[in-house]
Amino acid sequence: MNKYVIFDIDGTLNQTALYALEAYKKALKKRGREVKDSEIISCIGLSPAGIIEKLFHSLPDEELKEWRKDIRDCEFELMEKNAAAFPGVRESLEKLQEAGYGLAICSNAFPEHIERVLEMIGVRQYFPVIGSLLMGGSKPEVLGALLKKLGCESACMVGDRKFDIEAARENHIPVIGCAYGYAPDEISSADRVVRHAGEIAGAVMELI
Hints:
Mean pLDDT: 95
Helix content: 40-55%
Number of helices: 9
Radius of gyration: 17 Å
Structural class: alpha/beta
Shape: globular
């Protein structure tokens, strides 16, 4: 493949809030905490370490281990019932594949979580290449390593958070911002902004 479209997951492909709100409330309630939906939404797209910093500032090792197990178990259980891709995602992925673009993932998560989410929302088959936190400590680093691995002629990033914009800029590729995601105010500087996932393929074809 000479051209790749590289996707963020949460807020771009995945309607994460459908299960994450309940999962985080459940795990936090176990620790005697109640938080607003908006605080949980603001965590979507952060790295695991970034979420810990935002919610707790820091946790001792044993508490961190227990938290990670609790939130993983809660999310995986609720994904079974509630996980779904955004409307228009599959249509855009199909159009891009038919047009000859390669598809890849660039995520702030670890492989187990990425694989599970993609399976649950029914799009795993579209993504033969996955970039995870095993490839770098930040999204710009992961994207850089992924681009090197792909060795493509051109690429475009698609995401809904400022981290996606920053990663694309640092790696000198264009970026599409997803205003239907969880932080529409963060992506106004993208090269293209889409308000429905069904618009992604057309936006990509204008850029690369």
